[in-house]
Amino acid sequence: MKEDATVSQAVGKYVNIAPQKCQLVTDLIRDRYVGEALTILRFSKKKKASSIVEKVLRSAIANAQQKLPDIDVDNLYISRIFVNHGPQMKRWKAAPMGRAARILKRKSHVHVYLEDRKGR
User: Fold this and answer.
1) In a domain, 1, yes or no
2) Whose CA, among 18, 54, 64, 72, lies 20 to 30 Å from 32?
3) What's the predicted TM-score (pTM) here?
4) Which domain holds residue 58?
5) CATH number of the structural domain spanning residue 21
């Protein structure tokens, strides 16, 4: 089994966005260095999802700096990032002819794991 070299991690739980929308943004920054990932997130067209992922990524960076104060942030690398389904809120909307249409308000859990990699 592979030895775990994770420097830090951060989890954003119960985020008000559908996992499928958030997954599109996390696919953009997977296997990238932190500085490059933050730039991609800042200029992404998916504003809400990118702001959520950026907040979790900045939390992981802060966790790494807290855990190892002498760490170089430029060498931090996103080793794993994924989005899981959270609970769904079920709501109802009026539909024609006295019917009701179901609305699912989905939530997500965003996980970010960082590693320290030397040399680019």
Assistant:
1) no
2) 18
3) 0.89
4) 6-116
5) 3.90.470.10
Cα–Cα dist 7/60, whole Å: 9
Q: Tell me the C-alpha to C-alpha distance, in Å, between residue 86 and each of 13, 17, 58.
A: 8, 10, 21
pLDDT digits (tens, 9 = 90+) for 28-58: 999 999 999 999 999 999 999 999 999 999 9
Number of domains in the chain: 1
* Among the listed residues 95, 64, 94, 97, the one whose alpha carbon sits nearest the alpha carbon of residue 79: 64
Which residues are within 8 A (CB) of 120 and not within 5 positions of it... i.e. 6 or more apart?
Answer: 33
What mean pLDDT is predicted for residues 104-120?
91
